[in-house]
From TrEMBL:
<feature type="binding site">
    <location>
        <position position="217"/>
    </location>
    <ligand>
        <name>[2Fe-2S] cluster</name>
    </ligand>
</feature>
<keyword id="KW-0411">Iron-sulfur</keyword>
<dbReference type="InterPro" id="IPR037117">
    <property type="entry name" value="Dihydroorotate_DH_ele_sf"/>
</dbReference>
<dbReference type="InterPro" id="IPR019480">
    <property type="entry name" value="Dihydroorotate_DH_Fe-S-bd"/>
</dbReference>
<comment type="similarity">
    <text>Belongs to the PyrK family.</text>
</comment>
<feature type="binding site">
    <location>
        <position position="222"/>
    </location>
    <ligand>
        <name>[2Fe-2S] cluster</name>
    </ligand>
</feature>
<keyword id="KW-0479">Metal-binding</keyword>
<dbReference type="GO" id="GO:0050660">
    <property type="term" value="F:flavin adenine dinucleotide binding"/>
</dbReference>
<dbReference type="InterPro" id="IPR001433">
    <property type="entry name" value="OxRdtase_FAD/NAD-bd"/>
</dbReference>
<dbReference type="InterPro" id="IPR017927">
    <property type="entry name" value="FAD-bd_FR_type"/>
</dbReference>
<dbReference type="InterPro" id="IPR012165">
    <property type="entry name" value="Cyt_c3_hydrogenase_gsu"/>
</dbReference>
<dbReference type="Pfam" id="PF10418">
    <property type="entry name" value="DHODB_Fe-S_bind"/>
</dbReference>
<dbReference type="InterPro" id="IPR039261">
    <property type="entry name" value="FNR_nucleotide-bd"/>
</dbReference>
<dbReference type="GO" id="GO:0044205">
    <property type="term" value="P:'de novo' UMP biosynthetic process"/>
</dbReference>
<dbReference type="GO" id="GO:0046872">
    <property type="term" value="F:metal ion binding"/>
</dbReference>
<keyword id="KW-0249">Electron transport</keyword>
<keyword id="KW-0665">Pyrimidine biosynthesis</keyword>
């Protein structure tokens, strides 16, 4: 069930270059049980920022949700200035998340890039509870952008790649996953589209992708975040990322 609620800021801190983690407390957090869903956050007031910002759920503890966001415009800049005790209006939880419930005692590969990393942590915790063995590969542009490495290390082996080689393996996540996937049963990935394209092309095992996309309404009414399907016989030929996704079975949607 979708809730609209004014939630309380518990903390709001910078965790990497231009990257912040905000913790929000409210009754609606109780409904955030599926990793991969997102929160639609209202930034500013009045007509200052008309559209909400879709932000993925990084973790849930009791009635507190953690959200990681990157400062890329006026809306997220406004969010950095919200202090503990202040209220933020959210619409949540939205979208269809990762189908993790039926996966038990498997070898799982989590692959995240940039701000696509956060939802995989909540997913990893849920998968670990079901007896799955977790291996994570994280990709960032450079050392200053790295975050959540220690959190993923608590779930299992964690590898980091940076584009410039300033931390971990020099290169891309696929430079690491090519050595790992033969021993894996399933993968989940979230990140920029070029990374998703490379990952799905490389990995022949079953997997799911979570798409990052600009959104309007967040509930499937405005058709601002549509992606094509790969099935030529699909009667619709498209899916709404905010409503049908953001998580899809790998190779079922066109990554553009």
């Amino acid at each position: 069930m979708i809730h609209q609620e004014a939630v309380t800021v518990m903390s709001n801190k910078q965790i990497a270059e231009a990257t912040f983690e905000v913790e929000l407390k409210g009754a609606c957090v109780e409904a955030m049980t599926t990793p991969g869903q997102f929160v639609h956050v209202q930034t500013g007031g009045g007509w200052e920022h008309v559209l909400r910002r879709p932000l993925s759920i990084a973790n849930v503890e009791d009635d507190v949700v953690s959200i990681v966001y990157k400062v890329i415009g006026q809306g997220t800049e406004w969010l950095t200035n919200q202090k503990p005790g202040q209220m933020i209006n959210v619409l949540a939880p939205l979208g269809n998340g990762f189908p993790y419930e039926a996966i038990h005692n498997k070898r799982i590969l989590l692959i995240g890039g940039g701000v696509g990393v956060p939802p995989l942590y909540y997913l990893g915790k849920k998968l670990q509870e079901r007896g799955n063995e977790i291996t994570t590969v994280l990709g960032f542009q450079h050392k200053a952008a790295v975050f959540y490495e220690e959190k993923f290390q608590s779930l299992g082996n964690c590898y980091v790649a940076t584009n410039d080689g300033s931390y971990g393996t020099k290169g891309f996540v696929t430079d690491i996953t090519k050595e790992l996937y033969p021993n894996m049963d399933h993968y989940f990935t979230c990140g920029p589209t070029p990374m998703l394209q490379a990952v799905t092309k490389q990995l022949p095992i079953p997997g799911h992708v979570s798409l990052e996309e600009r959104m309007g309404c967040g509930v499937g009414a405005c058709f601002a975040c549509v992606c094509k399907t790969t099935d030529a016989h699909d009667p619709k030929g498209y899916r709404k990322i905010c409503q049908d996704g953001p998580v899809f079975e790998a190779n079922k949607v066109v990554l553009t």
